[in-house]
């Protein structure tokens, strides 16, 4: 395989070169240098680049799909050392696509089967985000929208979350669905093209399996706002009775081990933006998207308290959700279910019940409160006891009721962020004692208000 290096603002013409295989460790260069390669058994490609225009010609590169990708790729190696504290944003304009597909790609390695995310525009005017979550795995996709050419598109990585955007005819950025892939501490990012399949639009006898695409006016922005964890930290705050979990972010880390009631280790995130408040304490400023789970799947009756603020007015697409009694059985995805309490639109609190794999939403209650886009600290408190639920906002009960139809009675918690800019100061989960039956009625899905007969208890405990 041949490796071509393209330096920024240098005009380079590569013609009819065949690239097969993968890069070798000895071929690595600095992150400011561009590289070009084509992948596939008979893949050919060339690229022309100047200060604001990049043209890729590719041949015999069907698609970046299934388990092995075929494509031509102009890219840089980008360090991404601190997970959610690191951010990479690529924006580019595409003049037109007559056949095949092209777009923005970020991938873990140059292996044809590596984990990757790519935002792909097609000749038919479709825009998709494709993603492969592990080496050699299958590729999934989500539709982002329908586009006309020329089009401007954007792919953003923050931590393990990826966001897609495109500009519509009114010059407004439209957001696509978020996807989650771990690309590691270094990824390859740039622009790619695929010549497509014979049955796709734009093919004829003379030009089959060849395509050309022009990218222009691109920007690549990388940032990192990591602050190290505290040295030799000891949490001296007393542990209140019945505490199941407490996170006050005082140690400046979400991943320090060993895990304990007052030192939860968060799954799906290693480094978070944990700045200092004026009083020297630390908090979590979470931007963008993400979903994280904490706790024990057998938690039953409990209360979750979250202290939070919104440093900037929330966008219309913003949503922060606390998921309660989250149940997810990996072998049976349609059995996923939970309660979700969401903050939306700057003054709404919404309680929904999610079932059938999270695809069925049963609205329970929605209320409006005074705007929480005021920069002040607020407290969201949620209680679940047997089949009863209650939501309190700043100490005032705003939602209260009972789920008498197939209640969800146990499960851990989750925090979901969508287009967020939010400060979290404290998260605490406290067990609510059931003086009648303890947690057993939650597991039996019965006898919530009466004592369980002894013979049933004996049978259950066998």
Task: Give your account of this protein's structure.
This is DUF1080 domain-containing protein. It comes from Bacteroides cellulosilyticus. The chain is mostly beta strands. The protein has 2 domains: 221 residues, Jelly Rolls, CATH 2.60.120; 189 residues, Exo-inulinase, domain 1 (Jelly Rolls). The chain has 2 helices and 29 strands. Strands 19, 20, 21, 22, 23, 24, 25, 26, 27, 28 and 29 form an 11-stranded antiparallel β-sheet that branches. Strands 2, 3, 5, 6, 8, 13, 14, 15, 16 and 18 form a 10-stranded antiparallel β-sheet that branches. Strands 1-4-7-17-9-10-11-12 form an 8-stranded antiparallel β-sheet, with no helix packed on it. A hairpin with a 2-residue loop joins β26 and β27. The chain starts with a strand and ends with a helix.
């Amino acid at each position: 395989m041949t490796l071509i290096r393209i330096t920024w603002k240098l005009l380079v013409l590569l013609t009819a070169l065949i690239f097969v295989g993968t890069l070798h460790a000895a071929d690595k260069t600095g992150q400011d240098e561009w590289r070009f390669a084509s992948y596939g058994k008979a893949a050919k490609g060339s690229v022309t680049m100047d200060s604001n225009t990049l043209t890729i010609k590719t041949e015999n590169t069907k698609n970046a799909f299934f388990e092995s990708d075929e494509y031509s790729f102009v890219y840089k190696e980008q360090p991404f050392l601190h997970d959610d504290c690191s951010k990479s944003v690529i924006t580019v304009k595409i003049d037109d696509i007559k056949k095949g597909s092209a777009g923005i790609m970020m991938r873990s390695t140059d292996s044809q089967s590596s984990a990757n995310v790519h935002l792909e525009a097609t000749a038919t005017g479709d825009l998709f985000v494709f993603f492969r979550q592990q080496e050699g795995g299958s590729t999934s996709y989500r539709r982002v929208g329908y586009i006309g050419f020329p089009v401007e598109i954007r792919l953003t990585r923050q931590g393990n979350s990826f966001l897609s955007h495109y500009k519509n005819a009114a010059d407004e950025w439209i957001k696509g669905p978020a996807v989650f892939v771990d690309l590691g501490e270094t990824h390859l990012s740039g622009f790619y093209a695929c010549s497509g399949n014979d049955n796709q639009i734009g093919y004829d006898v003379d030009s089959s399996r060849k395509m050309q695409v022009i990218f222009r006016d691109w920007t690549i922005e990388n940032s990192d706002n990591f602050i190290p964890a505290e040295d030799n930290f000891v949490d001296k705050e007393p542990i209140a009775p019945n505490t199941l979990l407490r996170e006050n972010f005082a140690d400046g880390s979400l991943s320090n081990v060993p895990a304990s009631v007052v030192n939860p280790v968060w799954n799906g995130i290693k480094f978070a933006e944990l700045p200092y408040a004026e009083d020297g304490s630390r908090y979590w400023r979470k931007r963008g998207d993400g979903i994280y789970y904490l706790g024990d799947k057998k938690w039953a009756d409990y209360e979750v308290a979250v202290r939070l603020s919104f440093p900037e007015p929330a966008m219309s697409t913003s949503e922060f959700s606390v998921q309660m009694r989250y149940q997810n059985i990996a072998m049976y995805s349609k059995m996923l279910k939970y309660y979700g309490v969401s903050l939306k639109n700057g003054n709404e609190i919404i309680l929904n019940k999610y079932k059938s794999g999270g695809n069925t939403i049963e609205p329970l209650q929605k209320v409006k409160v005074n705007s929480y886009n005021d920069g002040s600290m607020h407290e969201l408190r949620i209680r679940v006891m047997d089949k009863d639920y209650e939501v309190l906002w700043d100490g005032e009960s705003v939602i209260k009721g009972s789920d008498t139809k197939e209640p969800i009675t146990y499960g851990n918690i989750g925090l979901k962020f969508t287009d967020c800019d939010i400060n979290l100061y404290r998260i605490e989960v406290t067990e609510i004692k059931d003086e009648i039956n303890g947690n057993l009625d939650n597991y039996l899905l019965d006898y919530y208000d009466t004592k369980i007969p002894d013979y049933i208890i004996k049978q259950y405990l066998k």
